[in-house]
Structure formats: structure tokens, C-alpha cells
From TrEMBL:
Keywords per UniProt: Membrane, Transmembrane, Transmembrane helix
Source lineage: Bacteria, Bacillati, Actinomycetota, Actinomycetes, Micromonosporales
Domain of life from the UniProt record: Bacteria
Keyword Transmembrane among UniProt keywords: yes
TM region(s), chain numbering: 30-51
Protein name stated in the entry: GAF domain-containing protein
Amino acid sequence: MLTATCVLVAQQYAVPSASFWNDLVGGRGYLIAILVTVIAAFGALTPAQIWSERSQMARRTAVRHQILNHFGRLLAIASRVDPKPSASDLGLHVWRVTWSLRRPRRRLIRIATYRLGSTPATRTFEPGRGVGVVGLCWKRNEEVAVDVERLAGKLTTHVDYDEYATAEGADAVMNLAWPEFARVRHRGAVFASPIRNGRGEFIGCVSVDASSGFATLANDELWHELNSLCMLLGDDGLLHV
């Protein structure tokens, strides 16, 4: 639209010269008509575009407000853990199933994290189906909770870990190799609930993790917060997180 406007202004004021425009437009008056049509069309669409952008922003603000409400209630639940953890310990994460042409295998990526502080640091993790607590949530399309602290206390060596995985099955260690387990075991209590679309298909999940306190956190109140948040995000299609 800007280009078309500049061309019309230049033609109106004979820039660079009147002869230039006579040679260019002479006998081709339809060119001016096309430029006017382009300007009119874009001018008509601009208010609709502005309204759409404002509507999207309002929806994103509303969804994030709801997420923060749930996060606040989860913090209240976590405050009952004894010994009481730091305010920044609890993390709430939103995950989405994704793929790309470069990486066609589907995986979960973290699209949002809520935590009161910068520690503990959020580590890069993009699991496939069945890997980690969120991957198991994807595989089963149901709620999953793992007492990682208890598992880490029992499996302190690579040998112990491999023997346990062989005896109990890979799901018992979240299908993680020992190095990956050692990297994430500091999050001692992990919970995940699926986000489903209108057809009941898994499109992502919400997870909560803390350094300890699995027994205190694993209650109906926590699952209510997670599941209601997942329903909200599922209805939204994870478009405004």
C-alpha cells in the first residue's frame, strides 16, 4: 500500500517529470485505476487487521492470567511441604507436541515456564514419546506422577540404574539413559497432565516439578489445578500461551 501511495503522489506532482509520467501512463490509464484499487483494498483491511491483533492480544492476556491464577494456587499447595521449600523451587511448565522438516520426529517442546525466580535453572529438554515424565504422559495420554527423589536415592550408580531398568522395564526409569537421569534427578517430584484437543488427542501437557515433597504434593487438590488448567489450554488449542 505504501508503494502504491508513493507512486500516485509522484504522478500527481510530476516527479521526476511530467514527460516521464506521460510516457509511462499514456494510453494505460488502467495502471492508475489498479493503484487506487490497491490502496482502497488495503485501507479497508487495515481496521480489521488492527481489531484482529487486539483481539489476539486480549485473548493471550486472559489465558496467561488464568495460568498465573493456577500457578498461585499450586504455590499455596507447595508451601505445605516440610521442610518448606524456597518460593522459587516450584516450576510450572507448558509443553506442546511439535515437529519440523529438519526434525520430522515428533517431540515435546517447552513453550512456557512459570517460576518465582531464576533458580533452579530450566534445562534444555525436548523428549520424544515415552521419555521423561512428560513423555510418559504423552505415551499414556493420562496423568503421570513420579517420585524422582525416591528413585534417585535408590539408584545411585550406573550399574544399579541399568539393573533396575532391566528388571522393572524402561518406563520405570522414564525411558531415560543414565546420563540424562543424572542430569534431571534434582527435580525430585514431577507431575504431568495431558492437554487434549476436541477429539481427545494429546497435543501437549502441563507439568509441575519440585525438588522434594512428593508425598505432600501428590493429592487431589494438585491434580484438580493441573487438570482444570489443561482443559483451559486444550479449549484454546495452545494458541495463546
